[in-house]
Amino acid sequence: MTPPRAGGDDRGAGDPGAALETLLEAVEVRIREQLRYRLADETLVLDPDALAFAYVLSGELQIRSAGLSGRSIGTGDVLLVGGQHTTTLVAQGAASVLVSELALADEAAHIAALLPDLAWITGFATLEPAAAALAQVMGVDAGAECENRSGDGPICRMMAKTVLASVIRAWAANGCAPEGWPYAASDPFLDRVVDAIHADPGRDWTVESLAAVGAMSRSVFAERFRETYGQSPAGYVTSVRMRSAQELLSRGLGVSVVSRELGYASDEGFSRAFRRHVGDTPSAWRAQRRLATA
């Protein structure tokens, strides 16, 4: 029996909503720096090499970037920068802003090509109130010492991931995404392959079977897939399985059940793969997740 896709199997190929959901599921980040700045007619330069979002906690900020001038964002608005150009925020009087500088995890690196170089979402706090509420309590004041508590790392990453995914969704919902977005490949044959992997992550996928789904030779498929997604087909399958595993574990399913659902021959093999990919055993990850959501 083939295992169900985590989250349900009703998301069909070619559906932009399904493609967006797949993209948001794939978002995984590392936090480079996450600070709250209090400004008074001051200038703040964002790291040009970092994927970042800036959520305006209060006041008004003017955006200065390549090809853009005179655009301002205010309380409850958010700016997303893709790390392609130097972007500067100029406070118009007193203002405070959360700046979260991130790096996409290796398994999510292909998402970078889908994100805008620069985007701002006005009224983000109204569009995504839950994410805006998280942003209000994220980060530490610039210049202040941070008291780390056990478990802060994964909890802060989950919060940053949630806000980033919500920013991407709000940007897409505003109609700013280009036509055909968010299909990474702009290639219906690769899209078909990715849809098949997500629909049935527990299947015994090989490069040959995936190439057959995409109607390509093995060598052409492997090269085209790596060029588009930044990793091998096998690596992508593993990433999808691990995200599915996290979702199933968070629902309360046991390790053995999840292992079987995702096609592993043994619990030990599944646990080893999970630990290599996530950094914790499935049981430890689930326990930490329960603490974070308690």
Write a short abstract of this structure:
The protein is of the alpha+beta class. It has eleven helices and ten strands.
3D architecture notes:
The protein is an alpha+beta fold and 294 residues long. It has two domains: 28-173, Regulatory protein AraC (Jelly Rolls); 185-293, Homeodomain-like (Arc Repressor Mutant, subunit A, Orthogonal Bundle), CATH 1.10.10.60. It contains eleven helices and ten strands. The protein has helices at residues 16-26, 124-127, 129-136, 152-173, 188-199, 207-213, 218-229, 233-250, 255-261, 267-278, 282-293, and strands at 29-40, 43-45, 51-58, 60-65, 68-74, 78-81, 88-91, 94-104, 118-121, 140-141. The chain has a six-stranded mixed beta sheet with strand order 9-6-3-8-1-10, covered by helices on one side. A four-stranded antiparallel beta sheet has the order 2-7-4-5, with no helix packed on it.
